[in-house]
Amino acid sequence: MKCIICNYETVKKNVEYKESGVLLGNFSAYVCQKCGEIYFDEKTAEKIQNKSKQMGLFGLAKKAKVAEIGNSIAIRIPKEIAEFLKLKKGKEVMIFPESKNDLHINV
Ligand SMILES: [Zn+2]
User: Fold this and answer.
1) Percent composition of the chain: helix, strand, coil (DSSP 3-state, to 5)
2) How far is CA 82 from the centre of its chain?
3) What's the CA-to-centroid distance between 41 and ligand 1, angstroms?
4) 11: CA distance to ligand 1 center in Å?
5) CA 79, 84, 85 angle in degrees (round to 5)?
6) Which of 84, 83, 77, 49 is nearest to 63 (CA)?
7) What is the pTM of this model?
8) How many Å lie between the centroid of ligand 1 and the Cα of residue 64?
9) Torsion sign, CA atoms 90, 91, 94, 96
10) In this predicted model, what pLDDT tens digit does every residue of 24-36 receive, in sequence order?
11) Burial state string for 13-32 with b = 16 or more CB within 10 A and e = fewer than 16
12) 70 phi, psi to nearest 5 deg
């Protein structure tokens, strides 16, 4: 198959797949030789999703709204994510922008 992004040839390879920084395993994929984009076939995508569900990672990405509290702003962290990260009230975290579009919270 050809890469959807750059139209270059892909090669079949085994790649490591991570979700929320947790390794789900090695999966067969088509990898673009130019831009490195990775494609999974339907069967593999299903396998990955099942593994993700099994490990409690599936659906952890959630939308959150920015709220205002006094002079600062707040973003609520959904319960599922807090539990996954073992975040509790009073815990200190490091927060820093990783780019203009990414906020990183190190717990
Ligand atoms: Zn490509």
Assistant:
1) 20, 40, 45
2) 15
3) 16
4) 11
5) 100
6) 77
7) 0.64
8) 32
9) negative
10) 999 999 999 999 9
11) eeeebebeeeebeebebbbb
12) 60, -120
Mean pLDDT (the chain) is 92
> DSSP assignment, residue 99?
S
CA distances in angstroms from 85 to 36, 78, 91, listed in the order given: 30, 11, 11
Question: Is 84 within 8 Å of 56 (Cβ atoms)?
Answer: yes
Q: Which residue has the tokens 């750059």?
A: 6
2: phi then psi, degrees, rounded to nearest 5: -100, 155
Residue reference for tokens 């609520």: 76
- Quote the CA–CA distance of 59 and 49 in Å, as a whole number: 10
Q: Which amino acid appears at position 50 of this protein?
A: N
- Whether residue 80 is predicted with pLDDT greater than 90 in this model: the reply is no
CA of 26 to the centre of ligand 1 (A): 21
